[in-house]
Amino acid sequence: MQPFALKNALDNVRQTTPLVHSITNYVTVNDCANALLAIGASPIMSDEPADVEDITGVCGGLVLNIGTLNERSIAGMFAAGERASQLGHPIVLDPVGAGASSLRTKTAGDLLDNLAVSVIRGNMSEAKALAGGSAATRGVDVCPDDAVTEDNLEAAAAFAREFAAKTGCVVAITGAIDVVADGERAYAIRNGSSLMGRVTGAGCMLSCVCGAFATANPDNCLDATVAAVASMGLAGQIAQGRMGGFDGNGSFRTYLLDALFNLDGDALEAGAKVAKLS
Amino acid sequence: MQPFALKNALDNVRQTTPLVHSITNYVTVNDCANALLAIGASPIMSDEPADVEDITGVCGGLVLNIGTLNERSIAGMFAAGERASQLGHPIVLDPVGAGASSLRTKTAGDLLDNLAVSVIRGNMSEAKALAGGSAATRGVDVCPDDAVTEDNLEAAAAFAREFAAKTGCVVAITGAIDVVADGERAYAIRNGSSLMGRVTGAGCMLSCVCGAFATANPDNCLDATVAAVASMGLAGQIAQGRMGGFDGNGSFRTYLLDALFNLDGDALEAGAKVAKLS
Amino acid sequence: MQPFALKNALDNVRQTTPLVHSITNYVTVNDCANALLAIGASPIMSDEPADVEDITGVCGGLVLNIGTLNERSIAGMFAAGERASQLGHPIVLDPVGAGASSLRTKTAGDLLDNLAVSVIRGNMSEAKALAGGSAATRGVDVCPDDAVTEDNLEAAAAFAREFAAKTGCVVAITGAIDVVADGERAYAIRNGSSLMGRVTGAGCMLSCVCGAFATANPDNCLDATVAAVASMGLAGQIAQGRMGGFDGNGSFRTYLLDALFNLDGDALEAGAKVAKLS
């Protein structure tokens, strides 16, 4: 990546306060809104088909998260997504639970096929289900067999690059090691904390943060996504460092938002562990 | 205001534990419920048209918040609102995002026209959209041009008084400076913290708190609303005072609820910055 | 109870990471998901009828909570419940607000009549409404006249045993004193904190925690439910013990999740106040 690419990407978020329209699940939506505010963006949520086109129209980016999808919100996702596609807004797709139900797999696939999606953000099981390579998931968690490790990292990167080339999207596959790729380049990001799997919504928040970065950095979606993933991972590490003896996932959730809120471009450059893969 | 009006208004909430039915958005609903509990009220949420009349019937007040409105919840708002109007319960209307979409502007206007609304609580852009004077908003945030400042405070108060006179409601326009008015009197409230704009839901929570105060103080809706607005603003200041070096909007959200929970009538009298406007 | 029954029940949750499908209200759903993660389970939420059967199929247990029920989620509850019944998964029913509206009373009754419910978890007013013995509630809170006290404890236990015998369920009636019974045995649990009534969702979280314990301890639903209720009560006490001078219900909510997260089987055995009733 270019020198200071991460810092510049974060600075662009904080200086432009991008408005991001999110259609997301009701489990983690509050954390998603606060994560957007923490990183310097402004959140708007609306899933009613009769409302979403206007809301998308006043925003700069769109995040579609299929957790707790329903008939109405699916219609809302397509209506908002078509408007965002017309307007050239970046669209982030989070295929929560793709592979765990046929409705989720089909909906994620239809959204990807019909909208101008910029970024796909999910775990490896979801990404494989969406790419048609697998249908096994452990609910909304990654299957142990699918987890990205140092041993299978090159294969994971090759899969991500291929999926990115096929779809024209930036693909962010997150887990213990994160992989972010477009059709040509792939990066591994080794930030993060295992506690991020012990709070609900770390992935959903990251997808919204990706939306903020993509909206504020329209000319470089790959670097923007790497910066978003590294920011969330570094925030997780900072949050873990604050944990005291009585703290658990309640406090970690608070610390994670706090760390995003206080994240500084220079600290991001210094702390991000981003490596280009062959 | 009368001496001890603020303290009395808060004491009435704490002593009567008003049950407040809220139909509100799924983004901030948890914070709304906890804000009601913090101030001494008891929350109930229900938006299904077949359920809301019974629920309204066992409550003492109603809050209608149109964030994440949908076809079902709009029907629920009218059904609950008609029942509350029949029962003489105070109704608080929070026109979230009025002006940002035609559905929101129309729904807020229809609710106002058809129900016996007692209090309208929103930012200046939303209030102007509802009053028919403007259609510009920045999503769910106030347009910079609409923000109430010391320079335009008298004009803002005149607008609020006029809108209150026209609708028969108490109008609470909140921002850096809050204005609360009925058709005759207007107050400026200079409490609050800029951090309240960096967490989602400060406005939604305030609307619910207004519902608690209006329900517990049925004979003086204006003073009740001033007390609610001052309470939330003072809680914001107290929360800001607790912020440490690693704290961000995650901690601020927690501290805000804590401050509401611990707010005391004497502290409210001492800390409220309420000024009658000419 | 058998020696170490509580510790064993908790250890089984932590060692098997049960996947629990919850169809629950949008007010407290985030806390429910984090409570499941805190106790060592894995949460999945889905309420769309076209999605729930697949989701139930990949899980091990089901929690049905009727707060903020609507036409869609009711259909989802029946579809998920029928699938769970076929699969022999434990089902926990939380009849939030039964007695407060006819839709809630009827829906809770229909779910109980048509599904293989394993555990009913509610307050005494809800339990009475569901048993047909009363229709009075104070919204989603217990009626003061219904509260379980030392004076009426034996009568409460007799009611719980009778209701359990009639339905074939384990019945958990929670409040200042908790009563858990099957058709033959009843236990009183005297853990907990009065602050649990000042945050939204303590009951909803407990129902999900009951789902985790029932799923991880399929051969002893009564002991599993006693362990779940004692765990939540002890977590409440630990959370209360952390409260500082500025803390309120915002901090208590965080501390409650933290205490569940850090709860240890030995500490549970040592701190649980479980008494067999005659």
From TrEMBL, chains A, B, C:
EC code: 2.7.1.50
Uppermost EC category: transferase
Pfam families, alphabetized: HK
Function: Catalyzes the phosphorylation of the hydroxyl group of 4-methyl-5-beta-hydroxyethylthiazole (THZ).
The name this protein goes by in its record: Hydroxyethylthiazole kinase
One of the protein's GO biological processes: thiamine biosynthetic process
Species of origin: Paraeggerthella hongkongensis
Gene (UniProt): thiM
Annotated ATP binding sites: R121, T174
SUPFAM superfamilies: Ribokinase-like
Cofactor: Mg(2+)
Keywords: ATP-binding, Kinase, Magnesium, Metal-binding, Nucleotide-binding, Thiamine biosynthesis, Transferase
Residues annotated for substrate binding in this entry: M45, G201
Catalytic activity: 5-(2-hydroxyethyl)-4-methylthiazole + ATP = 4-methyl-5-(2-phosphooxyethyl)-thiazole + ADP + H(+)
Family: Belongs to the Thz kinase family.
InterPro entries for the chain: Hyethyz_kinase, Ribokinase-like
Pathway of action: Cofactor biosynthesis; thiamine diphosphate biosynthesis; 4-methyl-5-(2-phosphoethyl)-thiazole from 5-(2-hydroxyethyl)-4-methylthiazole: step 1/1
UniProt cross-references to Gene3D superfamilies, sorted A to Z: 3.40.1190.20
A molecular-function term among this protein's GO annotations: ATP binding
